[in-house]
Amino acid sequence: MASQFYRIASIFFLSFLIVLLFKTPSQAKVSLPNDSIINIKEDYGARGDGTTDDTQAIQKAINDHIDSPFDVIIFFPRGKYLISSQIKWKNNDGQWGTAITLQGEHKRKTLIKLQNNAPGFEDASNPNAMIFTASELLSGNPTDGGKDWENLGEGNEAFRNFIKDLTIDTGTNNPGAIAIDYLANNGAAIENIVIRSGDRSGKIGLNMKRKWTGPALVKNILIEGFDYGIFLDEECCSVTFENIKLARQKVAGIYNNQNILIIRQLKSFNNVPVIQNFAAQGLVVVIDGKFKGKSTASAIENSGEIYLRNLRATRYRSVIMHNGETLPGKHITEFFSESYHLHSSSKTALKLPVKETPRLPKIPIQQWANVEDYGARGSSDTGKPDYTDDTAAIQAAMDSGKQVIYFPPGRYIISQPIIIAGNVRKVDFLGSWIGFPADFDRSKPVFRIEEGLHDVVQLKNMGPYWQAWENSHLGEVIMIEHDSPKTLILKDGNFQSYQSTPVSGDLFLENVVGGGIWRFNHPQNIWARHFNPEGAVHPKIINNGANLWILGLKIESPTTNILTQGSGKTEVLGAYLIPGALSRAPFLEDWPPAFVNDESSHSLIYATQAYSENQRYPVQIEETIDGETRMLLSDDVIRRDHLGSIIPLYTGYADTSDTDNLNLLNRQRLEKENIHKY
């Protein structure tokens, strides 16, 4: 009896200690308009009382709505929702689907919990997931999955799968439990959640080992317990992590076999390795990490390619064991497995200053304006998309004086630029699609952000019009024009394209997809976290004298990915590129370089994927400095699966003195930060 008491007391003390170590800013509750969500209590009778089994209510809500042509938000008010079996992304016919959001009201006060001793979760050798997201069904047979394996929901169309602002708890005595088996592509995210095991048991907290995982953003999560906190296996398609906290894993915090992991702000409280990266195809980028342990192992065990910056390990043998060799030292300022350059320049990364994405204050629901109240129609009376012109109604909503303008899920047509200014602080599209006629004036934007009353304006959750292949006019349209000195945030949306003006303020991108060209100009600052501009436009991103910082980039196009010119500075911390066949860009006669630097500065970390010889960049980087042009060829860099490439670090700087000053400022900042303990 006494031993059981001490065991329970020690678990409580450790949990309390972890909460103190990983304390995060308080979170306000999430409020959303009732006319645009599915309320799991009010609409499906879930109790959330911690006693009633809510499995059927939650599953039925997904079954009923996963075939919707638009995003579906299933809202969980505060409560403890007990489940006894897997929650899966399927319709009433058993077919897989996508574009479901599980949205909690509060990260720590909204809990989905697996019952203790749950049948089907007892076998660690045959693990089972509490929550199982999926790709859209492509074959049409109820028992099939996506493109690859039967009944696994696999595929590369797992668009807009979101899990936000709640806690997932696998209960006790469930050694075969996986909290979340997450498949996601292009504009999907897990954000502001806690994943925990009630007794440390369980196989994996966040599992991403199915085929076609990524690109996706995972931000602001704590994972406590399990054999592995996070597990990735397949080689496609990159995942961006930020502000990740790991505690009390039994085997490793993060395991990666072949994928591309980009991680910033990683904290670990563990007695096992923090990261294991074991395959040559794998590329891991870690920026800003604090690892507290009690182990004779190194904090990172690596056999693949890697880039590390500003990491500190306490009570580990060292920060990293690389290719079987323990590299001494408990602190790493910068380490990379290989580097390349074409001109004489600093051999360290650019290290642009980093700003966190601003947080908007809580805005009362009374300050939300529904565009349909002003005459817009996102769907017809039968629930199908509506194609009437909504321009005047949407502009009236923008001019209403409300702080938040929202679009109930639907398809809205705009024929003239919409001006966002005045008292507007946030525009939430809630997954709605924005369309425009083929004769839309290409010289004008769809949305123009002008100077208003607030220092920060956010646009979020625009729906999935994101591709711009050869038969589409989407890539020719400017979706967002930023004509204001105020800060703009684009978040969780398919925002097509963007251009700045000479007065543009700071820009923050989080989990953003786009099909057109993105144009940034001097003297703007851009911070992008999981940026996924798709489509065959050339070049995809133009940095003309701006400061462009990217944490996680994925592009699928045989065009130049970034052109840096006009003394611009571009830093890419991890990218995954799939050029595909040149025929996808018929306006090109020959392969362009993957990146171009014209009398400017860039540092790049990335990998490419090719499935045949005619799908690889012959030239990785073309760089002109002081009038001299040089090229880095694919044949001269690390191969990835024979046809792809890996660049753990490339540096090319037109002004080395300026770069040295930036590095000095960042070193001073990092030294100051390193004074702080856990």
From TrEMBL:
- Every Rhamnogalacturonase A/B/Epimerase-like pectate lyase domain range: 38-271, 368-424
Pfam families in the cross-refs: Pect-lyase_RHGA_epim
Annotated GO MF terms: lyase activity
The record ties this protein, via InterPro entries, to: GH28_Enzymes (IPR051801), Pectin_lyas_fold (IPR012334), Pectin_lyase_fold/virulence (IPR011050), RHGA/B-epi-like_pectate_lyase (IPR024535)
Give the UniProt keywords, A-Z.
Lyase
Give the protein's recorded name.
Pectate lyase superfamily protein
Q: Which organism is it from?
A: Nitrosomonas marina
